[in-house]
């Protein structure tokens, strides 16, 4: 009987190079988990390869899946507001996600694609791309947006509610880390708390920016 190999992780598709363009190209044909099947395309990170700050979300949304770029939909617009409030130039940061394909369900009889949180297995399968991006860029600070990103680097027991906004370190990466709320959580939250939640996000981004020299923001 012929031997069969089971591909279970992005690691099987990772090139040796740590050039961002080479990585992004390789990620286009990743089959490290099942999520590539239903999504339109891989959404790799975007931004300068010399960025001093790297921001990590959960996974692309509907708009990102269509556009092929991270944070270009409603969550991205809210993130933009927070970046402006924190005096961080979006052009200077590298934006990416822990999971590079959009995971969704469809409501019965509807064409609308509804975000579904990726499983721990999918996060672990896809994480090699994030580690490769970190190796390519070697940022001075990483901002983890939301619990999925936070747990991906800080461990499954990490509690965002207890440690958001603190400067942290993770076992596998030699970089300062700040974990904060995901802009999508603000969008889902109650409208009368939007302003204060956005201010809290901006404050955490400012904490992260405080770890950089002025010219790197
Ligand atoms: N939410 C994310 O976590 N990432 C995106 O790119 C868009 C929405
Ligand atoms: Fe590969 Fe990640 Fe897409 Fe899964 S989600 S197929 S591991 S790029």
Structure description:
The chain has helices at 20-27, 62-67, 74-85, 120-137, 146-154, 160-163, 183-188, 194-209, and strands at residues 53-57, 94-97, 104-106, 113-115, 141-145, 167-170, 173-180. Helix 3 crosses helix 8 (194-209). Helix content is 36%, strand content 15%. The chain is an alpha/beta fold. A hairpin with a 2-residue loop joins strand 6 and strand 7. The chain has a 5-stranded mixed beta sheet. It has one domain: Uracil-DNA Glycosylase, subunit E. It binds uracil and iron/sulfur cluster. Belongs to the uracil-DNA glycosylase (UDG) superfamily. Type 4 (UDGa) family.
Q: Which stretches are poorly predicted, pLDDT < 50 over at least 5 residues?
A: none
Please name the fourth-level CATH homologous superfamily. Answer: Uracil-DNA glycosylase-like domain
Question: What is the CATH class name?
Answer: Alpha Beta
Overall tally of domains:
1
Roughly what is the average pLDDT, rounded to an integer? 95
Strands across the major sheet, in which order? 2-1-5-7-6
Q: State the helical fraction.
A: 25-40%
Bound ligand species: uracil, iron/sulfur cluster
CATH architecture assignment: 3-Layer(aba) Sandwich
CATH fold-type name: Uracil-DNA Glycosylase, subunit E
Strand content: 5-15%
CA gyration radius, whole angstroms: 17 Å
Number of distinct beta strands: 7
Family: Belongs to the uracil-DNA glycosylase (UDG) superfamily. Type 4 (UDGa) family.
Protein name: Type-4 uracil-DNA glycosylase
Keywords: 4Fe-4S, DNA damage, DNA repair, Hydrolase, Iron, Iron-sulfur, Metal-binding
Domain Uracil-DNA glycosylase-like: 44-206
């Amino acid at each position: 009987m012929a031997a069969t190999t089971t591909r279970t992780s992005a690691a099987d598709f990772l090139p040796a190079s740590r050039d961002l363009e080479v990585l992004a190209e390789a990620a286009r044909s990743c089959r490290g988990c099942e999520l590539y099947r239903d999504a339109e395309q891989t959404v790799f990170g975007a931004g300068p390869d010399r960025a001093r700050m790297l921001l990590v979300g959960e996974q692309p949304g509907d708009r990102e899946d269509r556009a092929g770029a991270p944070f270009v939909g409603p969550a991205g617009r809210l993130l933009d507001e927070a970046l402006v409030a924190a005096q961080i130039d979006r052009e200077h940061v590298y934006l990416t996600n822990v999971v590079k394909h959009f995971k969704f369900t469809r409501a019965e009889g509807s064409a609308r694609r509804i975000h579904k949180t990726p499983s721990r297995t999918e996060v672990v399968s896809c994480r090699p791309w994030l580690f490769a991006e970190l190796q390519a860029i070697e940022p001075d600070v990483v901002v983890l947006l939301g619990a999925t990103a936070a747990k991906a680097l800080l461990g499954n027991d990490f509690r965002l509610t207890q440690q958001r906004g603190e400067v942290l370190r993770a076992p596998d990466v030699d970089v300062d880390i700040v974990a904060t709320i995901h802009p999508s959580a603000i969008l889902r939250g109650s409208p009368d708390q939007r302003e204060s939640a956005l201010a809290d996000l901006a404050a955490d981004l400012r904490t992260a920016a405080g770890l950089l020299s002025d010219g790197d923001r």
